[in-house]
Specification:
The chain is built from 14 helices and no strands. It is mainly α and 284 residues long. Residues 22-104 form the DED domain. This is DED domain-containing protein.
Length: 284
């Protein structure tokens, strides 16, 4: 039975592993978009990666093919942070649309992971607990925290303005509506937006009904990765060099001393404060 003849529901086995929705959607699209020939090629591609018994499938059957993908997940051959097996296959068979989608999903997951670590770091600092940063995230998150520390006045201005809203869903809507236009983004404004998102999420509680059904360690990542904001920012990152370019921008800024001459602004609730903080970062 083909995907078009099935319902659009996600297989329970994938849901039970608490993966972010954006990750599950990509895996399902990967399975659906491949031709029958591509599926047979992918089965061959997986030889030596998982036990041979797991390859005893009929690639034409949707259930069997999903089971093959799940075997790769269970064996940690494919993970949230390592989609290289799929990427190399898509390059080999020249599936450009799927390859671009994969790169976008990788950035959405990476960006959401940075936001989650930032939020947890802010909460740790408020409790006086030591920060727990992985090597991959440490440089970016530490720099974002340093930007926040040097610009407390601007950040507090925006947060204080939002305190009058009692419902977090309204605040989330304001954050999403204030996302800078993609055509107007720069790395400095991109970074300032991440700082604001992290600070807002750390300052306001999440109603239980808004939290996705995920493990506590991944709740912020899953929540943010499934937003239009994350998707838009990730697309902009992809067009402008991805994480490598972001890290290079941070390295350049770390070598320069911040200017104290930048004034604050009483602009709109978030857009103008993002603009201001972005300009400050440009001067660092």
């Amino acid at each position: 039975m083909s995907f078009s003849e099935q319902s659009n529901s996600t297989p329970n086995s994938l849901l039970q592993n608490n993966y972010p929705r954006v990750f599950i959607r990509f895996l399902l699209r990967f399975a659906k978009a491949l031709t029958l020939g591509n599926r047979a090629e992918f089965k061959l591609w997986c030889k030596g990666q998982i036990p041979g018994s797991k390859l005893d499938i009929n690639p034409v059957d949707d259930g069997d093919f999903i089971a093959l993908i799940e075997s790769l997940l269970e064996s940690n051959i494919v993970t949230l942070t390592d989609l290289s097996l799929l990427e190399e296959f898509l390059i080999t068979v020249d599936c450009r649309d799927l390859l671009e989608s994969l790169k976008e999903v990788e950035l959405q997951i990476s960006l959401s992971s940075i936001i989650e670590v930032y939020i947890k770091s802010v909460k740790d600092l408020r409790r006086g607990a030591p920060m727990k940063l992985s090597c991959d995230q440490a440089n970016i998150v530490k720099f974002l925290l340093a930007v926040k520390e040097r610009n407390e006045d601007v950040i507090c201005l925006a947060i204080n303005q939002l305190e009058k809203f009692e419902e977090d869903r309204i605040i989330l809507k304001i954050i999403e509506n204030s996302s800078p236009e993609i055509s107007q983004l720069s790395w400095s404004k991109f970074m300032s937006y991440l700082v604001f998102i992290g600070e807002f999420c750390a300052s306001f509680s999440w109603p239980p009904t808004q939290l996705p059904d995920v493990k506590a360690d991944g709740c912020y990542m899953s929540l943010f990765s499934n937003t239009n904001t994350c998707k838009s920012l990730s697309k902009w990152m992809l067009k402008n060099g991805g994480l490598e370019a972001f890290q290079e921008f941070i390295k350049e800024k770390q070598q320069v001393t911040i200017s104290d001459s930048v004034s604050s602004s009483n602009g709109d609730i978030l857009k103008k404060t993002i603009e201001l903080l972005g300009n400050r970062i440009d001067l660092q």
